Amino acid sequence: MSGYLDHLAVERGLSKHTLESYRRDLDRYQIVLETAGMRQLTEVTVRHIEDFVATLREGDAEHVRLATSSVARAVIALRGLHRFALREGWTSSDAAAEISPPTIPRRLPKAISVSEVEQLLAAASDDPLGLRDRALLELLYGTGARISEAVGLAVDDLDTDAELLRLHGKGNKTRVVPLGSYAASAIDAYLVRSRPGLASRGKGSPALFLGARGTPLSRQGAWLILRTLGERAGLPPLSPHTLRHSFATHLLDGGADVRVVQELLGHASVTTTQVYTLVTVERLREVYAASHPRALRA
Question: b/e for 84-98, b at 16 or more Cβ within 10 A?
């Protein structure tokens, strides 16, 4: 199975986070097969895979039942494994070809309001770490970048004069996005008043965002910043994608074309972006129900 994961990392360019999730799913799959006495994928039948998927759905003595999204991810991982094994000549048939991942209920992205974004940004302090935190959050909200993209930035990816930013997204795809004057100003303040001091504690990392020890800020560290400032601002629990969702929703609320938002977010398909249009429809419905004299029955 390691050969398949190497293929995903090198040829498909999947993120480290996705690869780790696939590894866990496939490790569990391998244990189940070995427990059943199977050492080769050639011994696996459709029934074996169906039983494994049922175990994921229902749980067992050692594992809780997985969410539908996690089951779907595991099915995609093992389907890819069997397809890869057939292509490499490890097996003569694909036992997983007829296995489909479960349909994931569509959930509307959770966005916070513009005033709540302002509360969040105001929660950052004016000390060196606070300047970094505000710059990070302004960048996330001002560009719609994923947290992993933000912490992967180098100083050279910035052009604050032109207010442009080069993001490195999924599958090693690069896109250039507008930075916005508020984000550019916050980043300038961080670069002048904060980053030099943080950098002096480390080994001269080119990363834009640095931790307290001068090493590159991690994805988990960025998530902790978001969560901590959200609690300080009195907001409900925030996810790593909260500001990205808010960025897209507020653009569409302001009249932006969905194709433009697709490009800014780095979505391969406009279908992925269109879920945000449902958020704005819900918002329109709420405003209509609260404002129109004949929207609701007495």
Answer: bbbeeeebeebbbee
Q: Which of 24, 57, 168, 170 is catalytic?
A: 170
Residue among 28, 132, 134, 244 flagged as catalytic: 244
| pTM score, whole prediction | 0.65
Average pLDDT over residues 162-171: 86
> 188 pLDDT exceeds 90?
yes
- How many separate helices (H) and strands (E) can be counted in the chain? 13, 3
Give the list of residues 6+ apart from residue 44 with CB closer than 8 angstroms, or none.
33, 38, 82, 95
Mean pLDDT confidence for 284-289: 68
| Whether 146 is catalytic | yes
Quote the pLDDT of residue 298. 52
How many Å apart are CA 246 and CA 51, to the nearest integer? 40
Q: Which of 36-40, 154-158, 179-183 has the lowest mean pLDDT?
A: 36-40
**What residues have CB less than 8 Å from 114, skipping those under 6 apart?**
250
Contact yes or no for 76/101 (Cβ under 8 A): yes
Question: Of residues 82, 132, 195, 241, which has the active-site annotation?
Answer: 241
Active-site annotation holder among 28, 146, 195, 245:
146
How far, in Å, CA of 78 to CA of 72, rounded?
10
Residue 4 a catalytic site member: no
- What CA–CA distances, in Å, run from 196 to 32, 133, 149, 200? 52, 15, 22, 6
User: Quick check: is 48 catalytic?
Assistant: no
Please determine, for residue 69, whether its predicted confidence score (pLDDT) is greater than 70. yes
From the list 4, 22, 29, 276, the catalytic residue is 276
40/90 Cα distance (integer angstroms): 9
- Is there a catalytic annotation at residue 170? yes
263 and 175 Cβ atoms separated by less than 8 Å: yes
